[in-house]
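// run 5 | inverse folding | seed 20
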């Protein structure tokens, strides 16, 4: 009578544990955080209200000083967040592309 094979417990260095923890490294987290920041920045920028110029030719009649800067906070913060996210994602992708396998 042959004995049935014993189910062995995988060691800590097995392929399954490497595969499971592969995407939890700081570089992968930086990549996903950078991509999330990129998407958030583009979303903030895309939903920004457009500038309303109105009747700027009659400014002396209105009694207001002409102010050419008409940016909302979304038009300033959106591109900054998008660029920061793109830079972080690019560095993480570059680091992942030269990693030893």
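// decoded
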């Amino acid at each position: 009578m042959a004995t049935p094979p014993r189910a062995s417990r995988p060691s800590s260095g097995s392929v399954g544990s490497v595969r499971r923890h592969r995407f939890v490294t700081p570089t992968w987290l930086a990549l996903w955080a950078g991509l999330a920041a990129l998407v958030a920045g583009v979303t903030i920028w895309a939903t920004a209200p457009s500038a309303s110029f109105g009747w700027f030719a009659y400014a002396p009649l209105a009694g207001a000083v002409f102010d050419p800067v008409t940016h909302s906070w979304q038009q300033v913060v959106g591109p900054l967040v998008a660029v920061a996210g793109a830079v972080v994602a690019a560095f993480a992708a570059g680091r992942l592309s030269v990693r030893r396998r």
